Predict the 3D structure of the following.
Amino acid sequence: MHRPIPRLATVAFALLTLLTPLAVRADEGMWTFDHPPLEAMQKAYGFTPSIEWRMHVMHSCVNFGGGSGAFVSADGLVLTNHHVALNQLQKMSSAEHDYQHDGFFARTHAEEMPCPDLELKVLQSMSDITADVQAAIDPKAPPVQQNVQRKAAIAKLQAAASKRTGLKMEPVTLYQGGEEWLYGYRTYKDVRLVCAPEEREAFFGGDLDNFSFPRHDLDFAFFRVYENGAPLHSTDFLAWSLSGPKANDLAIVVGHPGRTNRQRTVTQLEYERDVQRPLAIRLQEQRVDALHTFAKSGTEQARQASGLLRGLENNLKRERGFLELLRDPSYLAAYAARERTLRATVAADTKLAAYSDAWTHIDGVQALNRTLGRSRQLHEFGRVSRLADIATGIVRMTSEMAKPNEQRFREYQDSNLNTQRFQLLSPAPIHTDLEEMLLAQRFQTWADSLGTDDAFAKTSLNGADAKSAAHSLFVGTTLMDVNARKALLDGGPAAIAASKDPMIVWARAIDAPYRAERKRFEDEIESVETLEGARIARARFALSGHDLYPDATGTLRLSYGRNAGYAQLNSMVPWHTTFYGLFNRANGFDFQSPYDLPKRMRDAEKSIDLSTSLDFVNTCDIIGGNSGSPVIDRDGRYVGLVFDGNIQSFLWTFGYSDAQARCVNVDSRAILMVLRKVYDMQALADELTAAAK
Amino acid sequence: MHRPIPRLATVAFALLTLLTPLAVRADEGMWTFDHPPLEAMQKAYGFTPSIEWRMHVMHSCVNFGGGSGAFVSADGLVLTNHHVALNQLQKMSSAEHDYQHDGFFARTHAEEMPCPDLELKVLQSMSDITADVQAAIDPKAPPVQQNVQRKAAIAKLQAAASKRTGLKMEPVTLYQGGEEWLYGYRTYKDVRLVCAPEEREAFFGGDLDNFSFPRHDLDFAFFRVYENGAPLHSTDFLAWSLSGPKANDLAIVVGHPGRTNRQRTVTQLEYERDVQRPLAIRLQEQRVDALHTFAKSGTEQARQASGLLRGLENNLKRERGFLELLRDPSYLAAYAARERTLRATVAADTKLAAYSDAWTHIDGVQALNRTLGRSRQLHEFGRVSRLADIATGIVRMTSEMAKPNEQRFREYQDSNLNTQRFQLLSPAPIHTDLEEMLLAQRFQTWADSLGTDDAFAKTSLNGADAKSAAHSLFVGTTLMDVNARKALLDGGPAAIAASKDPMIVWARAIDAPYRAERKRFEDEIESVETLEGARIARARFALSGHDLYPDATGTLRLSYGRNAGYAQLNSMVPWHTTFYGLFNRANGFDFQSPYDLPKRMRDAEKSIDLSTSLDFVNTCDIIGGNSGSPVIDRDGRYVGLVFDGNIQSFLWTFGYSDAQARCVNVDSRAILMVLRKVYDMQALADELTAAAK
């Protein structure tokens, strides 16, 4: 079976008309909870989410760090996607127990399995600190200085708020710098796995069906949050809907969309098109190739590689889609036309004309970004080797902690130390053979792409070849042992300086080049993009008031729309699928992988109602990071679980259209039915239905 | 539910690479039975259809006149599509019995219902008369004269062959004039309806799903051929396959593809793009609008309009698709590049250089065609009013029969008189209110589009408004009575001249303008296109031997390919669907029309095996007219019934690609199962399985 080539040219044309400079379209927007589009929702759907409604939903939604979820019972039960849980499933699996492949089913609290390093966050408070931050900035200072002032002000406000509230405070920059906020979270670190179906069921159709519809996946996983050793008891959860979603019903999605580029400048998009996306694709393709080779060497190697491969293939499909859109000249032309209109409007307005040069300044730093940004991107290795990431993390954290709070890197400010320690001391297994291979590959890439004089390459290779260099780091390290990491962290700068652990020695050596590159980037690129982005935002606010939503930033957002099918090719795609469709597709491909239905489902066929709604689509505005978000009906009930967007939704990175783009969800009725009829999870099903409405 | 807009831009790009001047691609071609691509089939599929295999298949396949079919039992049972049977189903229905909507089920021979005017043809012989025709043409004579000589030679050879064989002989012009053939048919006029499912089942998904895949239709109908009052007994039938098709198996489709444009000149395609297709669309849209209005006036009116509407909507979807392809500049550029290459090759070849001006001559008549061809197309009214068609048919036939055979219009030469009489004397009901409305509409169009001085408009309107003019024809006519038509035909020119029947008076009046326009078209356009087309064909033969197939001409052809799914958008379309899929799609649209499964099927759900294969696709090269064709496996078994092409197959009008374009078929297993489990047609099922292999 050969791989289909995504063709996005057909969807890009839709953007030609949708990019209007200021107006927001029906169902458009990933809105912050401080100002959802109340009037538009009322007008379109006759529904206004009350303050109480919003607070309840906000407290019921869970941030998975790159994914989303929601509380669905009074006893701390959290529902998210199987693919959001995948990272933990992998870390909990071993050669003996492959929970990723086989699923996991705890039928009592005692059987629920603690996650090694999953921290969940629930948003409690949002404070607009824009005025305070602005007040701390001297607008006459050079940009570098302004950026330092800005960061110090944020750090100070953050520390004070943390102290005052006891919450984990995170700064959030919205509208390309136009607003600065502090979001306060409750965090939970005792999270246990309750239930996950087989990967083949959760991800039926595999990479082939990914980002498509009709879809037939049961992409769910249940966790439970514990506090003081007992399930978290709370009224902040979404009541289960037994009746599920209906065609054309209002649907509200609440989650943590990661990143959209709807308000970036054309030159920023060109940078993305020419440098950032192609490089990301190349680096991912390299890793995919290496992992496939690694997987061939044995069953256990295949298991270790499988989770990474799946994540990479998922990302690649998306990245290639984004790049295809960016390379479509008609798309970028439409985007540029919108920017020209906005710039002309600003220039013609005597009160705003001073902002006209903001775009020029941002455009001006893109030439440097094409070398500096590229080099920074190449030097990342967090997803290449966790152990290398832990080593550099320990080195950086200890030296940062020696500084005053507001002078530290943002990620090592007081509010984040707890989380950093939790990650650095994670007991999750590390597959050293695999990481060594990938790190060697990256060392080689530094030399190949940046030259042997590149500081990272020089320091890492140290005259040896890439394989030997990487091997020498893994062969003598003690960092596999969590206690060794703990001793280094607790020992502080002195312990780090004294360490002979080869990983730490290497991490120390690349610390200076890392800091130099980061400082240059922050001083010369970030400062300009943020300060000038803020000025553009101010001009936009002045033109259209506050009926705008910010680009996605991984923070809590509300989207809304309707459950609806769409026209595709010359036919119609229905708004939902059923279990008939699941069996049809498995039979259609003669049960060949990735359409090989697991035995549990095949055995259950006669006892389930095949007409049960399985997956459905709606027009809610989402993006990567929304995975695991609840779909909520107007009564606040849990009717669906977001797990994907169709391929046409790729354009939502750059603008909104409801012509074909859709958010793809699992129906609440499907989850409940399979818990009872396929997985024999009666207690879990009872827990969901106990508070059902 | 709003209508989807077909977007074909995505498929057109595929043509850029597929149009090579001479080579034929894997699985390409609608081959005549005298030279199927034996080597290519052997190479690709390890199968060579023997002479016996071919003769058996040829004698088993049935021409439905615009559709196809095949014998499937030793007792004259013929299987075709429900939509091929539709015209007869409509004619057999009445306000009391709506067989189109409700289906028809004869469980004994006695219950089988005679069709009013269905003539089936089975090909028995094929003779190449190219040399004889060429010999009769004086190449130095002007084109008009050559064309007259050519036609007279064909008519003479045809008459002689008819006399000699007793078969119905039909001339066939292949390769744009490059070859002239006589095809000899056995004909059958006692054809009875045996079984047709409900339209909602045969055409599940309606116009929305038409030309798409995955598909879930049971588009079949059974007829039985009678001879001398008893079922035709013969060994020339295709044995039913109980095991059905398999993925990647060789599939052979035999049927009567209507028309392709793969070897026309660029200027001919431009004529099609600018004049012929847009006009066809406009005329059809007019009728659709009128029929919708008519259908609203009552239940019986709705029934009368429904069959016409369905045919028109089907055609419109296809015509619009073709036009979109033709208007895609990249497509026509590729087509033009191919023509340039061929012309350059011919010009550079000293033996062929003389043919170089053939294209110039064809190009030269297109300017005239843009007025004359358009006017001819506007003046057609066969599908507007059957009664008007009968009246003009009677007038023309009587006057043509007074001439020597070879001087008559082709359709009134001896070999065709039997068929003409059968059609003119058909007892099928005529819905006069409906026809009067449509004819009035056409009269008005003549005046609007060609001016009130247009001979057809002037003669028909005769000073009155279009409605009154049409009304006056229908109000006093006796032609509803078959005996009145018979009396006129038998009375000959004298009876026609004496008739005061208003329809006949009108038909007499437009006879002269009709003949004048037709003569001018044949002398000035057809003669050049055929004679020069023949010269291009000779050049092509000289360059590539005879490894070519001619454009489709509605005559028997063999296509071959494999049963295979394809990549679409970013996912895969499976090679087949099952009954699970049927129920999934009905549920997916909440059983709303056109996804409202008939009661019989819903009731049968528990007793049928939902995993039974329903519809499937293969790469066989087909086009409109192939509807009802059998899909035959290498053992000559009947494994499927062609009923559609997906939207990507629209490009097969202009060239072949197997990237996404597919032929869409009903699985033999599905038909057998529903006969037994849904429609209680046990005797029919037994008849199919009696000779199953």
User: Anything to note?
Assistant: Chain B touches chain A through 45 residues (CB under 8 Å). The radius of gyration of chain B is 25 Å. Chain B has 26 helices and 20 strands. The first helix of chain B runs from residue 9 to 12.
